[in-house]
Every structure is written in C-alpha cells, then in structure tokens.
Amino acid sequence: MKTPASLLTLSVAACCLLSACVAAPVEQIPEPPPPPPDTNVYFYPGSGRSVSAAQQDRDKFECNDWAVTQTGFDPSLPRVPPHQRMHLVAGGPPPGTAVGAGAVTGAVVGAAVANPWESGRGALLGAVAGAAVGGIVEAERAANINRAEQQANASALGAHSAALEMQASHYRRALSACLEARGYTVR
Question: What are residue 186's DSSP bridge partners?
Fold first, then answer.
C-alpha cells in the first residue's frame, strides 16, 4: 500500500506531466496592409503641341478634380486605417471553462471508479487528469477561433483591396479621358 506522501508526490508529478500537454496560445502575426492601388497616369502634350509647365500643372489639377468628382475616388486620401478594419469576434464560453468542466468531470469519474475507501484519491487524480484534458480542448478551440478570424480578416481585406483597385481603375480612365480631351497623349 502506498503512503500519503508517495500519493502526493505521484499527484504532483501527474499534474506537471499533464500540464505540459496544454498548448500555448497562438500568436497572431498582423498581415501587412495591401499596397495602394496604382493611380499613375503618364501624359505629355500631343504631337506638334507646345504647353508650358504651368499649363500642364493646371490641366492636371483640373482633370484630377473632375475625375475625383466623377468617380468618388480620391487617390490623395489615406486608405482605411488599421483600427477601423473589420475584426471578427467569436462568441462562446469564457476562457478556462473547458478546464473547469474537465476537472469536475474527472473528479466525478475518478471518485466513481476508485475503490470505495480511496474515492478521495481517485477524485483528486481524476480532477487533475480532467483539467489537463480540458486545457487541451481549450487550447484547440482557441487555435480554431484564431484561424477563423485570420481567414475572415484576409477575405475582408482582399475584398476591400479589389474594390479600391476597381475605383482606381475608374479614376485613371476618367483622368485619361479629361487629359486626352485637352490634347494630351496619355499612356
């Protein structure tokens, strides 16, 4: 028969071994923001035409203003700042719930399967084992939530980037049309 000191040592060793099974939380690495959409339009005076630099600047300014009005896209404005980007918040039980539930379940099972005169020790060992299993479940659930958040954020960021690129394309077309109407060659 084992002594109480050896049982305590065994319990502590089991706790240490089982606590190593719990995974550390997954660290989220922020994704870099997408590059700004290309809004460059290259233009020069049409063949046989001479235009001063001041006139070119005035035409560029007026055509830019007209293109912004027509498309609603202003390339000089900053893009959506990081704190306003979508952030998915997953609901569910508070952190640590699975650990507590595992400990209680393990204690009940441990007491039930132990010899009647050793039910306290069975409950203790069952609680330790149940808490460790609950910690594993909790870590896996947290990892799944983190993966889902990253996928949702990546999808939203991709959709936002595509919408910005489409607006930039419309802006470039409008700016090009204005400059061509004023006699410039646009590339």
Answer: 43
Q: Round to whole Å and give the CA distance between 154 and 121.
A: 50
Average pLDDT across each block of 10 residues of the chain; the chain has 187 residues. List them in order: 57 56 62 71 83 89 92 77 44 71 76 77 78 81 75 70 83 89 87
pTM: 0.49
What is the rounded distance in angstroms from the CA atom of residue 18 to the CA atom of residue 133? 8
Amino acid at 11: S
- How much is the pLDDT for 90? 46
Q: What angle do CA 86, 87, 93 make, to 5 degrees?
A: 150
- Backbone phi, psi, residue 86, to 5°: -60, 140
